[in-house]
Design a protein that fits this description.
- The protein is α+β, with helices and mostly antiparallel strands.
- Strand 3 and strand 4 form a beta hairpin.
- The radius of gyration is 16 Å and the shape is globular.
Amino acid sequence: MSQQDNAPLRTHAHQPGWFDLVSEIVRGMLENAGEQERHAFLRQMGEQLARRYPLAAAQTVQELEVQVNLTLSRFNWGFVDLQPQENALLFTHMGLPEGDGSLEAVHWRAALGAVLTGLYAAWLLAQGGSAEVPLVCDAAGEDGALRFRYQHIQS
């Protein structure tokens, strides 16, 4: 397949103008709101997306992963790998959209991490999870992956 044959596949994933708009929204938040306010707002946007795109009931972690990835594929937002641990559920989100390059990668990943935190937390709650169990974005890897942990914190 030639470079020209691949052009529709490369341009399909990201419609012109959308990343421009989202980048300007994130840039505006960086300039006008504190870190806590930005994170809370973006997390709330993720929660609202979860309500707008509810998942089918899942009986296993594997079924949940399939449901999440089906929805993420609709958005062209990459995919997630779910790994159950003894007392936690680990999420590794890969293939994040890279944005339009006008924002530093660290700011772009932080914004998407906040949105995904709200999205995943709301989906887990709707699947029978507990509001008392936090979902946190542990790290943004150098590979571009975001890592989340759903785990009850002992006090």
